Amino acid sequence: TLKDMTKSGKQRPWREKKIDNVSYADILEILKIKKAFNVKQCGNVLEFKPTDEGYLKLHKTWFCKSKL
User: Per its UniProt entry, which superkingdom is the organism in (predicted)?
Assistant: First the structure.
């Protein structure tokens, strides 16, 4: 499981955000809104690169901002 920490040591809530995203996409699907598939695919691919300090840093992903 990915544990992404901020510089202050707090864990970023990516898992919760993805769960919310999937729930939102399910609602869009129920309502027959065409963007449901696109919303469900948001953030599925995460690409990381190592830093000089030995940590992994998010390098590339595909986020979307879909509002009701």
Answer: Bacteria
CA distance 28 to 50: 37
Query: Which residues, in sequence order, are CB contacts of 21 under 8 Å at separation 6+?
Result: 39, 40, 42, 43
Residue 68 has a pLDDT of: 55
> Domain boundaries in the chain?
14-61
What is the C-alpha to C-alpha distance for residues 63 and 32, in angstroms, rounded to an integer?
22
Contact 66, 24 (CB under 8 A): yes
Pairing state between β 46-50 and 56-61 = antiparallel
